[in-house]
Amino acid sequence: MSIFSLFSQSLVKEDYIFFDVETTGLNPFMQDKIVEIAMIKTSKGNIVDSLTSMINPGVPIPNEVSQINNITDNMVKDAPALDKKFGEKIVAFIGENILVAHNAGFDLGFLSAELARCGIVFERWRAIDTLKIAKTIFPGQKNKLEAIMRRYNIMPEGDLHRALIDTDGLRKIFFEFLEEAEIRNKSLDEIIKEFGFTGFNIHKFIPGQIREAIIENKNISGKYKKRDGSTVNLNIIPVAPVWSDNKWFLLSRDSLSNNEIILYCENFVEFF
Predict the structure, then answer these.
(1) Per-residue model confidence as pLDDT tens digits over 113-132
(2) Which of 189, 23, 15, 18 has its CA nearest to residue 106?
(3) Rounded to two decimals, what is the model's pTM?
(4) Number of domains present in the structure of the chain
(5) pLDDT (tens digit, 9 = 90+) per residue, 255-268?
(6) Of 135, 151, 161, 253, which one is the catalytic site residue?
(7) How far lies 182's CA from each of 64, 100, 199, in Å?
(8) Are residues 188 and 92 part of one domain?
(9) CATH of the domain at 225
(10) Pair 178, 257 in one domain
């Protein structure tokens, strides 16, 4: 869509980062990793920049995953790792722009976990989930990206389930959504509140003692409540917060073994 109605023009003028990741699996807390990332930046509805790269995950890509996204171990063996330098490049590219993804919780969860493993605190973001919008506009229908593209007669310029192709399709779908009656009369803040997520509320969930330990790179000890209700004493090195499933977790390392530990921030009982 190249001509926008008066209803949607104010929303189109915003700066967005459309993005998608391909991964080795479904759970970033179980050592699944990103193998491809694509980001498209728009301003006033026009593409102004992009960032796309294959990523070497450092672990084998399961065959069943390769059958879906057509990404193999051989394709990523010479690709860069998502290290701190690359992570900082991604964060700089995002800047203050609004993130848009289809099933955004999945993509944001992986991005947050990968950045946390690099020691990057990724917290000041706003995001819109186009899957949530699709379920409102097309209730009870299939709302995978390809199904929505067919509804709007959007033809993919390559194979779907590859990050850049999916991201470009997402961009086109989003601007179609802005013309729909369910969206076009809402403000941007209303859209984010109803159909999105934000990292700005991190201070409500991560205790000050933990934030201080992250900044100062020091150990912290305390009591932690497990799922069964019992408590254990922990001595950890906090690395960075991780946002996943609309909750804040803490990626940390055990002070003795240096093993990675993922902790639910609200389950800390007290600190020593």
Answers:
(1) 999 999 999 998 999 999 99
(2) 23
(3) 0.93
(4) 2
(5) 999 999 999 988 99
(6) 161
(7) 37, 17, 25
(8) yes
(9) 2.30.30
(10) no
